[in-house]
Amino acid sequence: MSKRVLHVVSNVSHYADPSEPTGLWLSELTHAWDVFGAKGFEQRMVSPKGGLSPLEPRALKWPLLDASAKAWLADPERMALLSSTARPDEIDPADYDVIYFTGGHAVMWDFPDDERLQGITRAIWERGGIVSAVCHGYCGLLNVRLSDGTLLVAGKRITGFSWTEEILAGVAKKMPYNAEAEMKRRGARYEKAVLPFLSHSLADGRLVTGQNPFSARAAAENVTELLTA
User: Fold this and answer.
1) Cα–Cα dist 95/93, whole Å
2) Which domain range does residue 178 map to?
3) Would you say the pTM of this structure is higher than 0.85?
4) Pairing relation of β-strands 189-190 and 98-101?
5) pLDDT tens figures, 144-174
């Protein structure tokens, strides 16, 4: 049977200030989708509320808008997928081998405390599946507890968008919290590349993470390697 991947995307469209838009960083979805699609994996999207996943405007401008994201924007069928994402209560975790949390600053608001997403993540992990995230997507892992009450990320090597990158991107003051610091506070062994904005992905057993938007393909390739081993 084909392997199945569940992509998690945000429903949030703005920072704390409604006049400042944000959303899904499209290439973090498309790069992984391309890698998994090339292997013939089945893929579906879920979001905390279901329905529309807004796009981060900054990710749609040159030079950040690459061929993969452009191809998605030009494909009505794929764009329709972003308008009709599933709700968590429509998802059976037993159907999926992988959960993959996409990023964009939007996820900092709706991923961490969504108990239904946490339940899906826990179920996939505890039946031997792969839990993965890229960039801010690791915010979706902050509060996932396993059946024994321990945090999934405790003691695990993990990466995600660094505080240094937040500062260099000029958005640190807009952040609701410091995701890197919160990961460390939960006992995760946070790591990052020597230089910011370089591709960097880690695999600690079945936990796979990528540091920033430029790490989505590497993270997906790490997931694929585990799935096909």
Assistant:
1) 5
2) 4-228
3) yes
4) unpaired
5) 999 999 999 999 999 999 999 999 999 999 9
- Distance CA(160)–CA(85), nearest Å, equals 24
Strand duo 130-134 + 98-101: pairing: parallel
CATH number, residue 164: 3.40.50.880
Inter-CA distances, 34 with 104, 124, 221, Å: 18, 22, 10
CA 26 and chain centroid, separation:
11
Residues 6+ apart with CB under 8 A from 20: 14, 174
Structure token pair of residue 141 = 């892992």
Give the amino acid at 47. Answer: S
Q: How many domains does the chain have?
A: 1
Question: What's the Cα-to-Cα distance from 26 to each of 7, 142, 228, rounded to whole Å?
Answer: 12, 22, 26
First CA to last CA distance, the chain: 15
CA distance 20 to 141: 25
Element (H, E) at 115: helix 115-126
Q: Say how far apart CA 146 and CA 164 lie, in whole Å.
A: 30
Q: Give me the amino acid identity at 94.
A: A
Query: What residues contact residue 212 under an 8 Å CB cut-off, 6+ apart?
Result: 134, 135, 161, 162, 165, 196, 197, 198, 199, 200
pLDDT at position 1 over 80: no
